[in-house]
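Q: My labmate handed me this sequence with no annotations at all. I'd like to see what the chain might look like in three dimensions before we decide whether it's worth expressing. Could you predict it?
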Amino acid sequence: MSNPIDPPKSGKAPALWDKLGTKLNHPKTAKDAIQMAGLDYTVAKKSLGLKTGLNQDAYATLRTDTGDILGVVNEGYEPLQNIDAFTFFDALVADDEAIYETAGVLGKGECVWILAKLPGCIKVHGNDIVNKYILLTNSHESNSHVRLKIIPIRAICNNTLTAALRGAGDLSILPTPNVVWDSEQAAKMLILSNFLYEELDMVFNDMAAKSITKEQLREYVQALVPDNEETLNTSRTEKIRASVLQLHDSGRGANLARGTVWGAFNSVAEYTDHMMSDEDSDTRLNSIWFGRGEQLKVKAFRLAEQLMWS
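A: Here is what I predict for the chain of 310 residues:
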């Protein structure tokens, strides 16, 4: 792992999800995608012989092929098998409204994911391309099942750009065997996703049109990573700030965004996705999509919105 303030390497940054997942060969159905990626293991529920805080029996979800325990759930939970989890999305793929592109797993199988690409892209000032993706996940470690999340990805650097917009949070779904319901649900998901991406098109282009001074950039970074009262963490805070400032000046795609709010936001996204953590790749991907990295990008997006009015 490079030092947090080492200069970024030239060329396009490799996508972590591509390294951890399996590139799919245009599967027509989610079942085909899951099988191509070798994720068609089954999950069972087993009693732990314990009571939860609500005085209910506690159960574990476990992989039947490896015996690995994936999570603890309540009595009413029933595992949704990976091979069945995303069938509701097949209607969009059949209509060429999406393509199953990459699939993978987090941890020992706690969460299975498929990254689906939507047609078209966002063009920020005409030549900075942001591709439109939907992330589908099926979790076996809690009482939730399928979730959808829109994932804009800046092409030149493979930065995932958090969409901190109202209505852009994770959408939780419990699929059913009802084909009509599935088709209707998929259509609603597509309408909402397209609406959010249209809004992001305007937001990203407005960010790119808004110039900022070096002083404003420093204030942005300081607000993002404020001073820590613990002396031991001061050095780490300064390294993070220095990394983000350096990426704004010389990161991948900096020449397309330098000196703008768009550039400031992307410097945080690049730091988060490619430099933030010393953890293993699997944990990093979870952080980028759902954890600390995602939270930092949400904060960066909201601070960028404030800069738009300064």
